[in-house]
UniProtKB/TrEMBL annotation:
An annotated Gene Ontology molecular function: transferase activity
Protein name as annotated: UBC core domain-containing protein
KW Metal-binding (keyword) present: no
Residue span(s) of domain UBC core: 1-147
Family under the similarity heading: Belongs to the ubiquitin-conjugating enzyme family.
Annotated catalytic residues: C85 (glycyl thioester intermediate)
Alphabetically ordered keywords of this record: ATP-binding, Nucleotide-binding, Transferase, Ubl conjugation pathway
Amino acid sequence: MLPKRIIKETEKLEAEPVPGISAVPHDSNPRYFNVIIQGPEESPYGGGTFKLELFLPENYPMGPPKIRFLTRIYHPNIDRLGRICLDILKDKWSPALQIRTVLLSIQVLLSSPNPDDPLNNEAAELWLKNEATALQTAMDWTQLYAR
């Protein structure tokens, strides 16, 4: 049996979709979502379509959802396994947050990489040393993997 909170959040995501974001529960497991985030146009990820997986563990909403990128992406806060370094997915999680808030935060992270809190150290170093090259690499990867 699915908690009312998850049912309400899922219904709201379907009734009021977030622009540039799609989150659809899997048929066989309503705690598992197939997510698509369109890369923000003003970012090096513009024009890209990124697939993610989101899972709501048993302790949700007391604990954060588990989410990762399935599409390869060059970003200082996303590692090669697709794990995301985002405070609200760790120590800044609050039960007041929702799936939609998390997805919007990830979309914002694509527009505003934070090389000072990296998960991908190589990308972060390049971002800090030569931002133009890092942005070009992110655009190249978007063309290669997210089209």
